[in-house]
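Data availability (excerpt). All sequences and predicted token strings are deposited with the supplementary files. A representative entry, Transglutaminase-like domain-containing protein, is shown inline so that the format can be inspected without opening the archive.
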Amino acid sequence: MAPARHDKDELRRRFAEEARAERPDLALLCLLVAAEADPALDANGMDAAQIELDRLAGLLPYGLRDGRAWASALAELLGERYGFEGASADYQRLESSLLHEVLRRRRGLPILLSVVWIEVARRAGAPVYGVALPGHFVVGFGDPAERVLADPFAGGRPLTDQDAELLVAGATGEPLEASMLVPAQPLETVLRILNNIRAWAAARPERNDVALWAVELSLLLPSHPARLRYERAQLLVRGGEFLRGAAEMEEYAQVVADIDPAAAEAVRGSARAARAMLN
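Structure token line:
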């Protein structure tokens, strides 16, 4: 059964409010994303996920002092003891992008497994941060200049500079750059998770509904690519909402007209085509 409309509105209000908080709660934002996908995930379920993160954090040893000690302790707890890791098949499952399911299954995409690591480590007082390498999210500990990196997808395998270079080369064919190692902010991480969900849905035309809510949540983030507005309009048209989609295309065309007149005219053409579908 689908959630009531006002429930969804409330979830989105909370998502937008948290995204604009001075210190956005990464775990809460991920759970609000998950609630869009899973109507069964209610407030109690979200609380249970937060409690599980607290519980795991409480199992870490006391007195760890440097990044390498933290990375080793997390690998031993989450990778070895609890078996959090990923496999190629996880890329085919929407659950791999939903935090409560990743906590339950102990499987997920690199970025969601990294969220588990970050949130468990943060609760235990670790100096931890996400690292948004192209194509493969990992975690870092201590001073970012020290480059103490671990790969939660591989159970917490330590990453040398050469390992990171190979990951980037495999994903993009490009060399590793220092800018790729800058700590990822929570909202950047959430946008990347939503991008992954959009990519999953794009490969499954029958899941236009998933693509639409992923775009709509992305648009609630304070900073997002303007082109997402056009993508939302296209999804509305694809879902049969021709007039709403056409109107949003025209609004987007106005936004880009001064920057790229040719693109604006192409978007207007798409709007005309959408309206013609009603005839």
